[in-house]
Amino acid sequence: MNEPTPLDKAEQAVRAAEADTDVARIVAAVLATQAAQQQPATACQHQHRTGRSTGEWLALGCAVCIGGVGIAFASIAIAIGGISVAILALVLRSIWQDIRKNTSR
Prior knowledge:
The protein is mainly α. The protein has two domains: 1-39, no CATH class; 55-105. The chain contains three helices and no strands.
């Protein structure tokens, strides 16, 4: 009439296995194998880095643009400095030549 539930069947199997130690060892091995199979296996232990967010890419792009403008201004400043030195050298050379002409007379 009443059919035994799976839990009742398992209890009966455990009671029967208690009498026979070989069966108990086999049951323990099977249970350990099933428990090991139910645990998810991890393929790798390192942590994966997520990609950059949009804000990070925008900040990086702005930094590159500002750096480029800074380098451009520095190049212009160096060019102006070079031209100033060249003009100064020409003026000093002209003054030197005038002084030499006046002293040789």
